[in-house]
Amino acid sequence: MKFQWTFFKSLVGVIIFLNISAALSKAQNGHLLTLDRIYSSGEFVPERFGPAKWLESSFGYTTLEKAKEETGGFDIIRYNPKQKEKVIVLRASQLIPEGETSPLLIEDYFWSSDGTKVLIFTNSKRVWRKNTRGDYWVMDLHAGRLWQVGKFAKPSTLMFAKFSPDGEKVAYVYENNLYVEDLQGGKVVQLTQDGSTTIINGTFDWAYEEEFGCRDGFRWSPNGESIAFWQLDASGVRNFNLINYTDSLYSQVLPIQYPKVGEKLSACKVAVVPADGGTITWMQVEGDPRNNYIPRMEWAGNSNEILFQQLNRPQNRLHIMVGNATTGRAETIYTEEDEAWIDVNDNITWLEGGEEFTWLSEKNGWRHLYRVSKDGKKVRSITKGDFDVISVLNIDEKGGYAYFIASPYNATQRYLYRTKLKGSSVADRLTPFLLPGINSYQLSPDAKWAIHTFTNSQNPPVIDVVTLPEHATVETLIGNKSLKSKLGRLDVKPVEFFRVDIGDEVILDGWMIKPMGFDPTKKYPVLFHIYGEPAGQTVLDRQPNLWHLLMSQKGYLVISLDNRGTPAPKGREWRKSIYKKIGVVSSEEQAKAANIIGDWQFVDKERIAIWGWSGGGSGTLNAIFRYPEIYHTGMSVAPVPDQTLYDAIYQERYMGLLDENIEAYKQGSPITFAKNLKGNLLIVHGTGDDNVHYQGTERLINELVKYNKHFTMMAYPNRSHSIYEGPGTTRHLYGLLTRYLLENMPPGAK
Q: For domain 494-744, which CATH number applies: 3.40.50.720, 3.40.50.1370, 3.40.50.1820, 3.55.40.20?
C-alpha cells in the first residue's frame, strides 16, 4: 500500500512537472497570452499608415512616412499609383519652426485646392472624446515658407482651421468665435463677437458632439466669399459638475453643460457671414430652437443657399430646409417621418447642376439611396432590393455610378458595391469573393482608385491600393506580416460564427471562441460579451479582442450575440424594434439565446458570466438583475443604471420623451431590478466620466445597499468613459476583470 501511494505521488509529480514544462514551453514560444504582453509590451500593435489624402489638383494621394533624416518627424509623401511613383513633397526638416531644433509633429494635415499649400495640425489637446484644439501652421511649397496662423491666440486653442476655396485665406474657431486670416498680409478678421462659455459659434456643445458627431461647425461657400456656421446658445442648460479630488490640495470642480433627459437643450441656429466681416444673416427657421435640432448643414451646391436638416426633439420628424444666404428666408423642401426615430443623413450630393440631391432613407423598410428633386416633389430610387445601404462612399456623377458599402447576405461583414445613378440596374459587388470579412475603402475623387483595408477574424488588417471597378491590387501598403505571424503562434481556437433561433422568427448572429485544448465531451464555463444598443454591433467578422483570446486560453468559452436593435444591416424593423424598449428587448433576447446555448453539450450552464462596457455595462446589469437564474457572474463597466440620468439626445431618440414614457424609462433601467441580484457583480466606473456619469453608479450602489446585496466596486479617479488615462490604467483594469472572473467563476472543463 505504501509502495502504491509513493508510486502515485511520483506519478502525479511527473504529470505536474510535464504540465508546467509544457506551459513554460508554450509561454517561451509565444503560444500563451499574458496581460503584460497585451497591454504593456506593444507587441501586438499593427503597422501604421496615414492619414492618407487623395489629391484634387493632381493624380494620386499623400500620406505620412517616418523621416530618415536625423531631425526625426514625418515626411509627407505623394504616391502616383498609376505610374507607381513616390515623391517626397514635404520633408520633416522643412517643418522646423524658426528657433526650434525639431520638426512639427504632424497630427493631421490639409491641402489647399491647388495643392500648393498644406495646413499642419499639431500640439493638440483633447476636447471631450477627440483632440480638436491645437496649433495650425501653413507651409507654402512654392515659396518654401512655414508660418503659424492665429499667433495671437493661446497655444493649443485653435479649432478646425481650413483653407478658403482659393487657398488664400484660412478660417478657424478661437474661444467660440469665428476668425478669417489672410495668408498674404496676415490680416485677421473676427467674424463673430459674442462667443462665450454659453454662446458657441463654429463648434458645438457636449451633447451635439457626442450624439450627432458634430465638431467642425462652419463651412466656406464654394466661391469663398461667405461662411455658413452654427451657433448654439447653451444658457440655461444645467451644468453637471465633475469633481477632481486628486490633482490638487483642494478639490476642483469641472462644470459641463449637459442636458439630461427632459431638461433644457441648447438653442441652435445657423447663419451666413461675409468672409471679410460684416452683417450676419440668420436663417429664419420655424419652431422653438430649444426643442429642435439642426444636426447637419452644408452649402446647397451653390454660394447663394445653404441646406440644413432640422429634427424635432423626439427625433421622429426631419425637415430638409433650404435657406437663402442673403435674406435668411428658409423653406422646407422635403420631410421624412418615422414612428420610431430618424437618423441624420451624411450622404447629400448635388446632381444635375443643383436640381437634385441624394438622400438615404428607410421609408420602404430598408435603408436605400434616393435622388430627390430640389423642390422635394420627385423622389426616385437609386438602390433597390431587400438589403441595407450601410454607407455611401462616392457619388460619381460624371461616371454615372453610386459607390456604397453593403452586405446583403451576412450582417457581420462589409463589401463595396456600385450601382447606376439612374437606378436602372442591379448593384454590382466590386469586392472580390476571396475577401470575406470587413472591407473598407477610401475612394479617389473619380472613383477609379481606392485605398482598401481588409480584415477578418483570422487576419489582421491589410491595406492596399486597388483599381476600380476591377479591384486589382496595384500595391500593398501595409501587410502586417509580423503581427499575423505573432497571432498565428498563439494557442487559440479560431473564431466561429453561428446563429441562434430564439423563436418568433428572430435569429441572432453570434461568434464564439472555444477554450484552448477544447474537448467536446466536457463542459466549459461561458463568458458572454454584450453591447446590445443602437450605437454598435459586437458580432462582426474582424480581429477578436486579445483579452477575449486570453480568457479562452484560461479555459472559458467566450461568446457574443447581437440582439435586435443593434445597427446590423437587417432592415428597419430589426433596428427599430427596440424603440421605447432599450434594456428590455436586449436583455430578453440575450437571455433566450443564453438559455439555448446553456443546453449545448459542451456548455456548463451552472457557470455563465456576462460583461460589457457603457451600453454593454447596462446590458450586464439588466442580465444579472432580470435573469439571475441564467447569469451567475457579471462585470459591468461604466454603465447607465438609470436611463433618466443620461443625455437627452441619445435617450429621448430611442425611448421617447420622458413625460410621455415614464414607465418605459423605469422598465428599461437596470436599477429598477437591482433587488433581484443573486450572483457575483463587479461594477467599474471612472469618476471623471463626462459621458456616462459616475452619479448613476452611486445611485445603484445605494439601491444595492438598501436591499443588502453584496457586490464589488472599483472607481478609477478622474478617468473618462474609456478609463485609459494615467500610467498603467488599462493594464490594471483588465487585470481586475481577469482576477474577478477567475476567482468567482473558475475556468476549465468539467
A: 3.40.50.1820
Chain segment 220-269, per-residue pLDDT in tens = 999 999 999 999 999 999 999 999 999 999 999 999 999 999 999 999 99
Q: How many CB atoms lie within 10 A of CB 669?
A: 25
How is 592-643 classified by DSSP, letter by letter?
HHHHHHHTSTTEEEEEEEEEEETHHHHHHHHHHHH-TTT--EEEEES--S-G
Three-state SS string across 354-410, please? HCEEEEEECCCCCCEEEEEECCCCCEEECCCCCCCCCEEEEEECCCCEEEEEECCCC
Picking from 440, 410, 415, the residue whose alpha carbon sits closest to that of residue 429 is 415
Quote the cell numbers at residue 434.
Answer: 476571396
Helix (H) / strand (E) containing 503:
strand 496-503
Q: Which residue has cell 515623391?
A: 87
Query: Is-cis flag, bond preceding 51, omega within 30?
Result: yes
Name the grid cell of 465.
491600393
C-alpha to C-alpha distance for 658 and 691, rounded to whole angstroms = 19
Q: What is the tens place of the pLDDT at every residue in 414-448?
A: 999 999 999 877 999 999 999 999 999 999 999 99
Architecture of the structural domain at 47-185: 7 Propeller (2.130)
For residues 477 and 150, what is the distance between their CA atoms, to the nearest angstrom?
Answer: 36
